[in-house]
Amino acid sequence: MKPAGEGGAGDSDGFDSDAMPAASSLRVRHLGCTDYWQTWQEMVRFTAARSDQTVDELWCCQHAPVLTLGQAGKPEHLLADLGIPLVQTDRGGQITYHGPGQVVIYLLLDLNRRKLKVRELVTAIEQAAIDLLAEHGVVAERHGGAPGVYVGVAKVAALGLRVRKGCCYHGISLNVAMDLSPFAAINPCGYPGLPVTQTRDLGIALTPAQAATALAGHLVEQLERKR
């Protein structure tokens, strides 16, 4: 397995420019295709440098192929070496895969300022994805004890968060139009044989850029409702 080291942020692939929705306490940034390791380090630096006046942000991006293992993740959930970089990261959860065609949205939030508990945040994130799918006629749901969003038994969105001094980072990945085959080389999120799906295969005709904008909108709606 190749280690994933520091890399460049990559070029934009058509995502919108930075924006803050009207009357919103959230800034939404569309970063394009970024290096996972570098984006993670930027989240750590952003969170460490926060003040009481720092505006909360959502970072929308895609990543080059990478496997990420959560802080307490078990290496045995990696079943085969595909030559894809592996990053031991500091989010919660087990192993997952990120790649082109998957939308990742990182939530950099001051939970104390929002008076938001982690369980409430997870519910809000899941609901944003559920609402997005419902807009396109797809019924999605939660599975008790297994954070994320599912259509039937198949997982379409995965969650992982890190909280430091009342502020969080990391977030949600939504499979949109990607190569799903690397998931067969892992136990997704630590569940052997867990099937995965994506919005394209569910009949939703959204590009990753469109899905990122739509999901960010639903996240803003959920988070502003909590204020």
Automatic annotation (TrEMBL):
Q: Which GO terms describe its cellular component?
A: cytoplasm
Give the GO biological process terms: protein lipoylation
* Sequence positions that bind substrate: 91-98, 158-160, 171-173
Q: In which pathway does it act?
A: Protein modification; protein lipoylation via endogenous pathway; protein N(6)-(lipoyl)lysine from octanoyl-[acyl-carrier-protein]: step 1/2
Q: GO molecular function: any one? A: lipoyl(octanoyl) transferase activity
Domain BPL/LPL catalytic stretches: 52-227
Keyword annotations of the record: Acyltransferase, Cytoplasm, Transferase
Where is it mainly found?
Answer: cytoplasm
EC numbers for this chain = 2.3.1.181
InterPro entries in UniProt: aa-tRNA-synth_II/BPL/LPL, BPL_LPL_catalytic, Octanoyltransferase, Octanoyltransferase_CS
Note on file?
In the reaction, the free carboxyl group of octanoic acid is attached via an amide linkage to the epsilon-amino group of a specific lysine residue of lipoyl domains of lipoate-dependent enzymes.
Q: Which HAMAP family match?
A: LipB
Report what the protein is called. Octanoyltransferase
Taxonomic source organism = Candidatus Accumulibacter phosphatis
What's the encoding gene here?
A: lipB
